[in-house]
């Protein structure tokens, strides 16, 4: 007969692994599901077998700690890697619908009494002229290349965007041998330098990266952005602009390079909580996040969320939230869980800091002026800005209605890249994604699925 | 002061506004959301005559069919007169299907089992036969609604048709019994008449005026595949069970295969019907059933990926007929809502007829079957 776990955790990043482990230690029967072949999520993407551990340590702060948790979890929980979740639903128990494997994927269903959603976040690129040229990468994409296979993303690299995440990306690229020509931060450098939370480890870490870049004579400029990428078949140079406080270009110059790694923050992945009807709220940067209480409980009974889905805040906060969630699940299922006030204080402190970061590195509206009528806003469906403007003139008022009239977000990535930009172009904060199918699934597989969960 | 305020910028509201402006009236359309953001933006764009039993709804559909073709010709939006193929799985279904076709008096061709492949080469073997309806068509419904409002504004004079999005109606202005305009969250709008084209929310709007119009949501899901470059499916193809489901009284989940390609490449797979209120949470069993039925009809689809699914709420009335015309219980208030799954197809005829009423003309069709006060109080 079917096994029903006490807890299913989706996402093997810092939040999911810490949550699963905490729940295991409290005596729960736990299953952990992740799409990737290796654990770690975006933060701790493991290096391939055989690469030196010394370098791993250099690239990953906190990796040792994560590796210990992963090992401990492996002894106690069921771990299903390489499982892409395309839907979650409540059918008596909570049911997680997965596709197992890559090419020869097959459907698999997991059932549990409770669910912890720790699906993280992905990069938020903004469109600008030339962003679709080969050689232009998201900052997260460049870092994933580095962490995943130690490929140096390019020889002459420019890093641009906003937020402290640009610094470890630039430092990692420089350490791996790339010639990093500059880091262009659209907001002020070290926006938190005067902030009372300066003592928190994250800024120290950021300043540490800053020092590392300074040693290598990599310029780090505030109020600067890459506003255009040039090249015939691939990137050859970029236009760097000095910006005013609203991100309107004040002066420009060109810079030759073959790689641009850029990012304007992150988009929490909310497909699964939205499928279940979990309430969302607008985070401090306007991005929708799952609304949770102090125990990381969502508005839907039995469903918990931790990590970036509840607000982007980095690996340390994600791990702490995961632990809180795992313990809350155990307590709610009747296990004895001793209080741990230090953990709650840690979450409070880290989330206050994360909030301050989001406020210090917002996306300001001037970026819209970098675009031209023919600049693609949606790369999948090749929708230019002019088509988006036409849709707005026809009476669209939000990303969804622009999509219905002009097709941005209708393609393969389903708006993961462009939906925030389209919402801002429509003059509103981004809305939570409505995607009853979170991952592409073959009609034949969907047709052949059984209605009752198979053995877990 | 406008002559008419239309509540709702979906396909039906857009058509009401277009024809009212054409009739010389000044029109303001208000919608609490964007243009075409409700049920219009969650459908497939069906313009069907094939699924209507003889009677008032078929009359409406036939009037609409001609109007759609006229609008597409003059106002330029995506309209595909591709025809519909209804297929029967059993001899008994086929008999019912051909019986319906004979009674409709609509142009059609009976298709024998061995001829089905000429219409749809990838159709599954073993079907009993079908009926082809050349007049069935498809529009891109959001673009059609938005374009109607835009063209109306351009063609019938500056100021004749205005769209105000993000304006929510919160109540009605009254002069004695008479409805003299709407209260909104952006101020009052006085008008000669008000048209309730709020679709599945039409009952809630009517309640603001103190009248009952029993419109409830009937949820449907649609699956969308990855783009398929080669033309795998040529027509709108659906099973005889669809006709039965459309007319069904059941609250339970009903599904039947409706499969068609779109000009941009993806194939759309419907159709499900269930009464679950305005619940948007994903129902995997519904998606599975839709997939199963589509693959049974077109085995070639089994290897294609679904990249998207969406759900919407059809506005249904207990007798499956829309509500069109003046409301005698609240003079000045008119309704044009409750079209269930046929709102896109029936929009032009609805708008045309309501514009005739608003302009004081005799409508081309008898509106008595659609009158707003036809429902018995508290049906159950």
Automatic annotation (TrEMBL), chain A:
GO terms for molecular function: oxidoreductase activity. The lineage of its organism: Bacteria, Bacillati, Actinomycetota, Actinomycetes, Streptosporangiales. Gene3D superfamilies: BFD-like [2Fe-2S]-binding domain, FAD/NAD(P)-binding domain. CDD domains: GlpA-like_Fer2_BFD-like (cd19946). The keyword Nucleus does not apply. Residues 5-317 form the FAD/NAD(P)-binding domain. Residues 376-423 form the BFD-like [2Fe-2S]-binding domain. Residues 434-456 are annotated as: Disordered. This is Oxidase. The keyword Oxidoreductase applies. Keywords: Oxidoreductase. InterPro entries: BFD-like_2Fe2S-bd_dom, BFD-like_2Fe2S-bd_dom_sf, FAD/NAD-bd_sf, FAD/NAD-binding_dom, Metab_Enz_Cyan_OpOx_G3PDH, Opine_Oxase_asu/HCN_bsu.
From TrEMBL, chain B:
Signal peptide: none annotated. One of its GO terms (molecular function) is oxidoreductase activity. Residues 3-356 form the FAD dependent oxidoreductase domain. Keywords: Oxidoreductase. One of its GO terms (cellular component) is cytoplasm. This is Oxidoreductase. It comes from Streptosporangium carneum.
């Amino acid at each position: 007969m079917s096994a029903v776990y006490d807890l299913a955790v989706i996402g093997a990043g810092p939040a999911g692994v810490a949550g699963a482990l905490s729940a295991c230690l409290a005596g729960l029967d736990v299953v952990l599901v992740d799409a990737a072949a290796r654990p770690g999520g975006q933060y701790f993407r493991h290096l391939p077998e055989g690469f030196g551990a010394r370098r791993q340590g250099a690239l990953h702060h906190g990796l040792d700690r994560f590796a210990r948790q992963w090992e401990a979890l492996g002894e106690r929980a069921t771990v299903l890697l390489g499982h892409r979740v395309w839907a979650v639903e409540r059918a008596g128990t909570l049911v997680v619908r997965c596709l197992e494997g890559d090419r020869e994927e097959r459907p698999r269903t997991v059932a549990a009494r409770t669910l912890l959603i720790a699906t993280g976040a992905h990069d938020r690129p903004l469109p600008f002229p030339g962003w679709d040229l080969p050689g232009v990468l998201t900052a997260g994409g460049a870092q994933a290349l580095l962490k995943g296979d130690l490929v140096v993303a390019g020889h002459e690299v420019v890093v641009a965007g906003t937020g402290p995440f640009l610094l470890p990306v630039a430092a990692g690229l420089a350490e791996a041998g790339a010639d990093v020509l500059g880091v262009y931060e659209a907001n002020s450098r070290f926006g938190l330098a005067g902030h009372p939370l300066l003592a928190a480890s994250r800024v120290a870490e950021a300043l540490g990266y800053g020092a590392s870049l300074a040693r290598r004579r990599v310029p780090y400029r505030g109020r600067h952005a890459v506003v255009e990428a040039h090249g015939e078949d691939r990137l050859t140079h970029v236009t760097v602009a000095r910006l005013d406080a609203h991100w309107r270009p004040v002066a420009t110059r060109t810079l030759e390079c073959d790689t641009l790694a850029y990012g304007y923050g992150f988009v929490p992945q909310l497909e699964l909580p939205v499928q279940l009807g979990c309430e969302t709220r607008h985070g401090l940067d306007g991005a929708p996040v799952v609304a949770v209480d102090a125990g990381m409980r969502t508005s839907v009974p039995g469903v918990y969320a931790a990590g970036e889905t509840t607000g982007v805040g980095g690996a340390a906060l994600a791990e702490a939230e995961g632990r809180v969630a795992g313990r809350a699940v155990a307590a709610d299922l009747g296990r004895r869980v001793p209080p741990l006030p230090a953990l709650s204080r840690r979450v409070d402190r880290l989330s206050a800091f994360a909030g301050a970061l989001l406020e210090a590195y917002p996306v300001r509206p001037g970026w819209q002026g970098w675009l031209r009528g023919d600049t693609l806003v949606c790369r999948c469906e090749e929708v230019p800005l002019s088509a988006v403007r036409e849709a707005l003139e026809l009476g669209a008022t939000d990303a969804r209605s622009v999509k219905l009239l002009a097709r941005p977000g209708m393609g393969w990535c389903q708006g993961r890249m462009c939906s925030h930009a389209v919402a801002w172009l429509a003059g509103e904060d981004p809305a939570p994604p409505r995607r009853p199918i979170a991952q592409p699934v073959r009609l034949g597989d969907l047709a052949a699925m059984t209605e009752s969960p198979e053995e877990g | 002061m406008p002559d008419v305020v239309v509540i709702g910028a979906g396909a039906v509201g857009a058509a009401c506004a277009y024809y009212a402006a054409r009739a010389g009236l000044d029109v303001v359309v208000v919608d609490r959301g964007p243009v075409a953001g409700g049920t219009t933006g969650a459908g497939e764009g069906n313009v069907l005559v094939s699924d209507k039993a003889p009677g008032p709804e078929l009359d409406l559909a036939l009037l609409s069919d001609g109007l759609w073709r006229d609008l597409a010709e003059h106002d330029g939006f995506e309209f595909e007169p591709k025809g519909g193929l209804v297929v029967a799985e059993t001899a008994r279904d086929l008999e019912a299907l051909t019986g319906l076709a004979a009674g409709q008096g609509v142009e059609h061709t009976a298709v024998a089992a061995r001829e089905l492949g000429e219409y749809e080469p990838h159709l599954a073997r073993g079907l009993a036969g079908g009926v082809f309806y050349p007049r069935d068509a498809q529009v891109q419904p959001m673009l059609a609604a938005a374009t109607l409002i835009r063209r109306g504004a351009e063609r019938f004079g500056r100021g004749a048709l205005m769209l105000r999005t993000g304006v929510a109606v919160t109540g009605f202005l009254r002069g004695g019994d008479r409805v003299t305009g709407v209260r909104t969250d952006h101020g009052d709008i006085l008008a000669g008449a008000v048209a309730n084209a709020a679709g599945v929310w039409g009952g809630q709007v009517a309640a603001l005026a103190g009248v009952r119009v029993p419109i409830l949501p009937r949820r449907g899901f649609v699956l969308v595949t990855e783009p398929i470059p080669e033309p795998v499916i040529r027509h709108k193809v659906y099973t005889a069970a669809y006709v039965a489901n459309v007319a069904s009284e059941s609250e339970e989940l009903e599904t039947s295969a409706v499969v068609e390609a779109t000009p941009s490449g993806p194939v759309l797979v419907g159709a499900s019907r269930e009464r679950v209120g305005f619940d948007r949470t994903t129902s995997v069993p519904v998606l599975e059933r839709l997939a199963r039925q589509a693959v049974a009809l077109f085995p070639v689809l089994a290897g294609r990926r679904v990249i998207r699914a969406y759900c919407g709420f059809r506005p249904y009335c207990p007798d499956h007929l829309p509500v069109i015309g003046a409301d005698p219980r609240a003079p000045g208030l008119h309704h044009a809502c409750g079209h269930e799954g046929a709102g896109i197809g029936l929009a032009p005829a609805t708008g045309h007829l309501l514009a005739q009423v608003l302009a004081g003309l005799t409508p081309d069709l008898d509106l008595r079957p659609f009158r707003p006060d036809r429902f018995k109080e508290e049906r159950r």
